[in-house]
Amino acid sequence: MVKYGFELKKVGSLLREARKGKGLELSQIAEIIKVRTEYLKALEMGRYDVFDSDVYLKGFLSKYSKFLGVKEEKALAMYRRERDIQKEEKSIKDATKPKGGPSFILTPSKLVAAIIAGTVIAVLIYIGSQLNEIVKPPTLLVTEPIELSIGEEGTFSTDLENVNISGEVEAGATLTVNGTKVTTNNLQKYQILDLSLEDGQNQFILEAESQFGKKSQIILSVIKEVAATQAEKMEVNITVNENLILTVVSDGEELLNSSVGTGEKLDFEAAETFTLNSSDLGKLTIRINGEEQSVGNVSTSSWELSEGVVKKL
Description:
Layout: H1 11-21, H2 26-33, H3 37-45, H4 54-68, H5 72-95, H6 108-135, E1 140-144, E2 148-149, E3 153-158, E4 162-169, E5 174-177, E6 180-182, E7 189-196, E8 200-209, E9 215-224, E10 234-240, E11 244-250, E12 253-260, E13 265-270, E14 273-278, E15 284-288, E16 291-293, E17 300-306, E18 309-312
Helix pairs in contact: 1-3, 4-5
């Protein structure tokens, strides 16, 4: 920075002295040269930040100095010197400014704003959680006889006459099984005992409905297995569909060995085994204990009764 042993005279002082030497007021000059009073005053006081641009400032300075009889070149040179000194001083000030200081200072107003913002966020989070409880379906689980959760379907097989269903349901929700309301305990657990089963498939639709009308559903199918009936003997019914020669042997005894005609029927019983022989057994309709047998176009087929079950050999 350039230092001087004396204070340099500023252009504002030069203009002010010239004006007073002429005995004029700023308002008078402003009216004559058509420049606003505040601009003339700013030039005399060195307040150059009042002007929108350096171009306007220099234009007003030239006009004012010319009116006062001050050389324009001198006035402009003094102005430029002042601006250069101001820029140099600002540069030194910025360079010596402490760095790394705190970027945030907590004031009472900022603290109040932070508390209000935190409260608003907490309220919004609470409202959001409550809305989530309203729109989501209620919890529903089956833990016995198999494990199932919301939206699932499952099948369980048993040979028992009854089945128990137990699980968990959301607090406050209403639970029904096939439309019948079920009572739950304080732990939101339920247990339905001794549900009667019919032979074959039994379907149980469990539905939970929340206080807000949202529903969850689980479908449990329980199949009651029917034990196979053990036959004591084979009751055989044969219908002839086309003429053929047929041989029938039951429990080692030959019952028939002759021609049979269309429409003829043959009924007999076998305790252990029987065998049919013909050119084409597919021309016969064969039933054992009322159940039709499939033999195809073969010449020989045999059946046996083993542990109460009829088997084709």
